[in-house]
Structure formats: structure tokens, C-alpha cells
Amino acid sequence: MNSNSSKTIFFLAPYPKGKAPSQRFRFEQYLSFLEEMGFNCTVYSFLSEKGWETIYKKGSFFAKMGAVLYAFHKRLLLLFKLNKADFIFIHREASHIGPPIFEWIISKVLRRKFIYDFDDAIWLPNYSEQNAKFERLKNYKKVNKVMAWADTVTAGNEYLKNYALQFNQNVHVLPTTIDTENHHNQKTVHSKSPVVIGWTGSHTTAQYLAIILPILKRLEDEFIFEFRVISNENPKLDLRNFSFTKWNKETEIKDLAEINIGIMPLKDDKWAKGKCGFKALQYMALEIPCVISSVGVNTAIIEDGKNGFLAEDVNAFYDKLKVLLQSQSLRESTGLAGRKRIIDQYSVNANKEKYLALFK
User: Fold this and answer.
1) Each residue of 66-103: pLDDT tens digit?
2) DSSP letter string, 280-346
3) Are residues 116 and 166 located together in one domain of the fold?
């Protein structure tokens, strides 16, 4: 019998299982592995599936308030079950709004140790237009207290780790990872024409496309290519050969593999420094060469000119996209090197033991 067979892990997370990329690629894809190792894993989300759908609709203020109140009710009930858990793992926050009341009760009243995991600069304000009215209810600085109360902190990159070290000395870097065997297991076809330059992300990060738009317009005058966006909302860009694919969990890998060159423009600010390079990781896993802003963890993921390309400004985006558009062989060799980088350093298989070590 596995020595972990009687151990139970409660995962507390903001969103329903299988819905949010942050959760899916931070801990959810390790659940089956942990269960194979003998752990009993249960995910307790703050929002229900119905609440998740409600909270991101435009308007519906009272429906959103109802969803949040129901979520708080569920969290209160969960406190009475925590004695059944051998390990408590909190991803980002136990509740979307208000002070860290649940983390405080877990740590100070129930005297339970917990692992705290985060993958963005979530101490900085960042919200969508749909939820601007809820902005005043957010408590961004609560993350500092939660870090201090945690027994262990896991951060998505070195920048986040260094921030967390101000509040807790037991901090480890666990990168956001890709399941290259069961999920990102397809690859792009570089021989097709026209070449597809693409970007994927949520509507909240589509603002970064404004950085690259003048360059794409300039390239349109020199090359025939399609620019494709995969997202939950259509940004309706003013480009001759623009196309939009609505993000769908069931077809996300197939849709992503239609891209031949991936881009990830970012502003060089504190929020961008906290990001974990997820777009680049996805592109590289599917052998899609990418051109990404040389900001934060991107410079650790990419070896410029070998497994991808770093762009320090818009002119660099132009130069490197132009070279990739001109050379199929370069796209192929860069894509192969990119996937190898993911398998070696940023895959689930490469990081399983790090996750397992948290629950020893």
C-alpha cells in the first residue's frame, strides 16, 4: 500500500475546477498524479459554476452579489470540514473579495498549516470592465498577510518569489507547466499557406495587442499572412486578414495548433514582470515559434534566436516576425527547440517531484 494512501489534500481555489487557466495549469493537472501516489484530493472552489458564469456577465449586479454571498456561505461551511484534511493548499485566494478572513481563521483560529500558491502580481489592482463596481470590494494587499501566515509559499517565477520573501522565508518557485503528453500533444504544420501569426488570451489581456497592431499593418504591406486571435471576446482588429476563433476548451489545442507563429507583446511594468509566460509555454509546446516581449520570466524561458525570439521593442517585433515569415525552415527548427525546452523544464513530467515534495 502506498504510504500516502490515507493522506487527504483540500485545494481551495477561486474558480470551479476546469474553468480558469491559472488553476488548470498550476495545480489541477497534477491531481491525477497525486491520486496515483495515494493522496485523496478534493477541490473546493469559491464560486460555483453558475456563479462563475454570472460574475463575468455585463451588468447583473444583484445576481453577482447573490453568487458571492452564496460563495461565502459555502466557504463558512467548509471551515467545519478542514479537520479532515492532512494538507490545505490555497491557490491565489480563498475568497474573491474582502479581507483574508478565511485564511486568518485557518491559520490563527484553527491553527492549521497551509501551502499558498500564486502566479501573478496579484497584490496590484487588475480588473475587467465588467467588474469595475466590485473593485472597491477587493483587498489586493491581503496577499501579503496570507503569505506571512502560510507555512509554505509557491510562486510562479523568481520575481514573485522575491516579492514573497518579504513576508515568508519558506518560498519555492514552481513554474506554470504544460502537460505535453495528455494535453499539448499536437504540433503546428509549417508548410501550410498562408502563414498564420496568432495570439491567444482573455479579453482582459487583449489590450496588449495595441502594442503590436502598427507592426502587423506594416507587415501586411510586405507579406501575405493571416492574423488570428483566439479569445473569449472578439477584439475586432483593423487588419486586412484578421480572423477570430472563440476560445473553446474542447478544441483549444486543435485551434492553437493552427497558428504558425505566436506572439506575446507586453508592457514592461510590475504586472508583466509577475506573469509566468504561459502564452509562450503553450506556443512552444506545440512547436510554434514565438516572438515575445523581453519582460520578466520571458527572458528565462526563451534563448533568443534558438528556441524562440525576444523583442525589446516594436521594431524588434517587426524584424523577428519578418525573418520567421520568410523562412519555413527557421520556423521548424525554432519550434522543435521550443518544444524540447518545454519538455525539459516546463512540463508536468519535469516538475512532478517538486509538487510531490510539498506534501511530504
Assistant:
1) 888 999 999 999 999 999 999 999 999 999 888 999 99
2) HHHHHHTT--EEEE--TTHHHH--BTTTBEEESSHHHHHHHHHHHHH-HHHHHHHHHHHHHHIIIII
3) yes
